[in-house]
């Protein structure tokens, strides 16, 4: 899919005139029917093709805003990924399927989304239930084996809206039926003939109608993770506190001026604890100091008769890094001069 | 937040034992890595998936990483990584969601050995980046120096953007001494302001939630 399509989540809604024509091909039962749109969007197409039908409407939508619109318009909508949704087999009368026109993203054997959406949802259709499949003409090919083994009474039409013609969109109408093994080849031939008829007839709304079977209200459940809620909750995870020390800024607590002057011992303790960081000194000696505790590991070996013992000795020490107002820098450690640290002055004119 | 699926990546793991192949995957909300070396990962999923991926991380196995734009790459966290786990109670789910954080050995020693990994370093997160760098390296510095020093590091090619999900990470190839020298030179040249009053240097405070939400 192109980037522009990806940004729309592969969302190409059915043009309104096509929805009106499709509605003319459907006879809904007075007892009521459950209708599913697995890519319901804002629900416009589903409402059009079930207008005045008295049907129970169900949808699945990934986009938050569109799912909200669909719910507000009276469609029982699951906000999430279709592949996390499930329903009892044979619980819907009509499946309106206009899936994203894209490939799945896997390491190998990536299938088209049209096929995957059909495969996931067709078992939810009752026998005699109607499938309305809006796809790109070229993408019906991978669906032929599944369609010919599970559906019959095929009709394929070209959509004539300029937007649909631009993408070579077609609509396949079929009814679910048990196809005996010996009739599958004949069924497949009928389907192939319907798909590749030349020229492909345009959908006018005056074609033979399909009788939608009656079904009670269905139950559609979601077993996937609610990603939006989880993303909001993630900063509350206790695990973050464990990595904050080496990934996020450390909070420097500035302490208030003490009521009484510090004893030199207190000053020493506070310095080494890194709590007297900041600006100090006068004139040429004004500087910013920052204390740090460092771990030093000393390794030494002891050679015995048949083996060598390696000892590691750990100790903690403090060091202070200082930067003066005039650019001098200094790192004071408890190591001998020359081993580490030492005063440095920047080369003049190199800044 | 809305439409999280547009921002989340995927960590996939294939385990082949004999004739059996098991595929496990987790959602990723944050990742820091450089080519095939993963430094940091924040992922979530159900118990079994998190358990499997944790074991695979400790066994230094290789994973498939899927970025939000659909691009893929191989990733490994190297020897001696650390795994931290948390739990998220989601009201609509009966069982809590498991949260997994993986930190590579390099990230555990972040700021030492002349290399520092910053989770966010973009135009709008420059204060956070500078605060993190100063905190990790123990630099005597001022918050107002952020822009100049980070620009200087970029000019010296010591700051390199690496791949990330949910963040804009960079690697800073400079030790504390290098940065102190850089600050010292700039102070000598009068390019950086020095605090006028004695006392503590007040740094902007970032709570964990703020620091994570910035991305």
From TrEMBL, chain A:
One of its GO terms (biological process) is methylation. Pfam families: DUF6094 (PF19587). Residues 6-214 form the DUF6094 domain. Signal peptide: none annotated. This is DUF6094 domain-containing protein. It comes from the Bacteria. GO terms for molecular function: methyltransferase activity; nucleic acid binding.
Automatic annotation (TrEMBL), chain B:
It comes from the Bacteria. This is Uncharacterized protein. It comes from Edaphobacter dinghuensis.
């Amino acid at each position: 899919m192109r980037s522009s399509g990806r940004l729309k989540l592969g969302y190409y809604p059915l043009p309104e005139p096509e929805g009106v024509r499709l509605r003319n091909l459907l006879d809904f039962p007075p007892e009521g029917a459950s209708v599913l749109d697995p890519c319901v969007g804002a629900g416009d197409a589903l409402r059009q093709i079930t207008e005045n039908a008295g049907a129970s409407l169900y949808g699945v939508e990934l986009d938050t805003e569109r799912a909200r619109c669909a719910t507000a318009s009276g469609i029982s909508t699951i906000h999430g990924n279709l592949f996390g949704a499930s329903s009892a087999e044979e619980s819907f009368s009509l499946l309106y399927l206009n899936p994203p026109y894209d490939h799945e993203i896997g390491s190998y054997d990536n299938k088209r989304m049209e096929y995957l959406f059909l495969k996931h949802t067709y078992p939810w259709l009752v026998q005699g239930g109607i499938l309305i499949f809006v796809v790109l003409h070229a993408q019906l090919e991978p669906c032929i084996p599944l369609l010919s083994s599970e559906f019959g009474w095929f009709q394929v039409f070209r959509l004539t809206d300029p937007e649909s013609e631009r993408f070579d969109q077609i609509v396949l109408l079929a009814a679910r039926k048990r196809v005996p093994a010996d009739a599958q080849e004949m069924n497949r031939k009928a389907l192939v003939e319907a798909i590749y008829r030349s020229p492909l007839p345009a959908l006018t709304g005056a074609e033979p109608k399909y009788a939608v079977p009656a079904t009670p209200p269905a139950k559609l459940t979601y077993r996937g993770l609610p990603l939006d809620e989880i993303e909001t909750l993630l900063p509350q995870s206790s695990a973050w506190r464990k990595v904050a020390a080496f990934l996020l800024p450390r909070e420097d607590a500035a302490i208030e001026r003490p009521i009484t002057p510090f004893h030199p011992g207190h000053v020493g303790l506070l310095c080494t604890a890194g709590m007297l960081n900041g600006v100090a000194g006068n004139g040429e000696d004004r500087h910013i100091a920052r204390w740090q505790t460092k771990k030093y590991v000393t390794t030494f070996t002891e050679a015995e008769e048949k083996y060598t013992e390696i000892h590691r000795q750990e100790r903690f020490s403090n060091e202070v890094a200082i930067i003066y107002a005039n650019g001098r820098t200094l790192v004071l450690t408890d190591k001998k001069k020359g081993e580490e640290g030492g005063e440095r002055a920047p080369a003049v004119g190199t800044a | 937040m809305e439409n999280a699926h547009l921002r989340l990546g995927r960590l996939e793991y294939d385990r082949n034992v004999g004739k059996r192949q098991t595929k496990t995957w987790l959602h990723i909300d944050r990742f820091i890595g450089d080519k095939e070396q993963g430094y940091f990962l924040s992922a979530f999923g159900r118990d079994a998936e998190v358990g499997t991926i944790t074991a695979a991380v400790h066994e230094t196995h290789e994973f498939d990483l899927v970025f939000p734009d659909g691009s893929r790459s191989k990733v490994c966290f190297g020897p001696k990584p650390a795994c931290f786990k948390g739990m998220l109670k989601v009201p609509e789910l009966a069982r809590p969601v498991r949260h997994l954080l993986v930190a590579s050995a390099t990230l555990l020693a972040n700021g030492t050995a002349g290399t520092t990994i910053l989770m966010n370093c973009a135009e709008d997160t420059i204060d956070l980046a500078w605060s993190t760098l100063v905190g990790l390296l123990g630099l005597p510095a001022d918050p107002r120096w952020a822009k100049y020093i980070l620009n200087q590091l970029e000019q010296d090619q010591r700051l390199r953007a690496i791949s990330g999900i949910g963040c804009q990470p960079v690697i800073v190839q400079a030790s504390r001494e290098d940065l102190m020298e850089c600050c010292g030179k700039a102070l000598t040249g009068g390019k950086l302001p020095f605090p006028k009053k004695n006392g503590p240097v007040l740094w902007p405070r970032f709570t964990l939630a703020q620091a994570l939400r910035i991305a």
